[in-house]
Amino acid sequence: MKKETGFTLVEALLSATILAIIGIIMVSLLQQSFQLNSKSQLISKIKQNGQNALNTIDEAVRNADSIECPLPNGTSGPLILVTVKNGTYIRFNIHTESANNGYLGEEMFPSSPGLNKSYCNYSDVPINLVSEAILTDKTDPITGTSLKNIAGDGFSSSTNNSITVKFHLGPSVQAPNKFDSQTSNILFQTTLTVRQR
Fold first, then answer.
1. 152 compared with 36, residue with greater pLDDT
2. What is the C-alpha to C-alpha distance for residues 84 and 49, in angstroms, rounded to an integer?
3. Which site in 46, 129, 130, 156 is 20 to 30 Å from 86, CA atoms measured?
4. 3-class SS of residue 143
5. Which residue intervals of the chain are DSSP H helices?
6. Secondary structure (3-state) at 135
7. Among 13-22, 43-52, 129-138, 165-174, which is the least confidently predicted range?
8. pLDDT higher than 80, residue 28
9. Residue 147: CB atoms within 10 Å
10. Which candidate, 139, 140, 187, places its Cα nearest to that of 165?
11. Which pLDDT value is given to residue 18?
12. For residues 107 and 129, is the Cβ–Cβ distance under 8 A?
């Protein structure tokens, strides 16, 4: 009798099962790799947005002639106002919204006769607004960043010449919930001093 060469049905099924298990493991590892990559990209984006906002505020405060809001009594509030050399006011607002991404905004407007401290009010928008900018990325509801509403955040002043800036950034409000607490609220804080002239 002649011996046949080849695989039996049991051998073929066993090898197919082993290959399927190896394939599932490889797909799982690849998926985890993509998730870690997107998480690190999100953390990087949040840190870049926060640092850019701090740098912009830092430059405005350090080059200011004076700090108008908050008053130097240690209180904190939602906005800061500084005066630059040419009499132009710069107001930074913390906007926190529950349904949309919160953001840090910057508004510039010139000094005008009769301008009083109403510009320290969060809701008052100057009539003669020169420019307006959003310092943190709030554009994309899924991949953007969002300013978080956490107690103690804002701008506070302990003396006439120094101001503390504190805010938290995290993933967009509609971002998938696959990111843990490491990305949810990243703190940005600094204390700045106005240059003496």
1. 152
2. 24
3. 156
4. coil
5. 9-62, 181-184
6. coil
7. 129-138
8. yes
9. 26
10. 187
11. 95
12. yes
